[in-house]
Design brief:
Blueprint lengths: L2 H29 L6 H8 L3 H23 L9 H8 L2 H18 L2
């Protein structure tokens, strides 16, 4: 198996894990009365120093990832799915998912 194929497989697995694990906890949060209403969500996201650090870390990384996607014009217009996914589904899904997608596009390029 080639290293590109191994990397693609690993990225795919990481994307699936990055979708399932955080959303397991997100669903628990919502089931416990959590909300995406800004006054509730941001109160909970910035509840203490640890959650503030994690929230800011993820959002800053998502912004940096979005800049990288924006300048990756070789990926075409379809690349914007990754920016939406980063903020709606989670960076831990969007980042490996985008890299998996790009490796597939490179392999099919002439």
């Amino acid at each position: 198996m080639t290293s590109n194929r191994q990397a693609k497989r690993l990225l795919f697995v990481l994307a699936v894990i990055g979708l399932l694990v955080p959303w397991h906890h997100n669903l628990q949060y919502f089931a416990g009365g959590g909300s995406v209403l800004p006054q509730v969500f941001f109160r909970d996201a910035f509840a203490n120093a640890l959650t503030t650090a994690i929230t800011l870390d993820v959002y800053l990384a998502a912004v940096a990832f979005s800049v990288g996607v924006a300048v990756d014009q070789a990926a075409g217009r379809l690349r914007w799915w990754a920016v939406a996914a980063a903020f709606l589904l989670g960076l831990s899904f969007a980042l490996p998912g985008y890299l998996w997608w790009r490796l597939g596009a490179q392999r099919s390029a002439p």
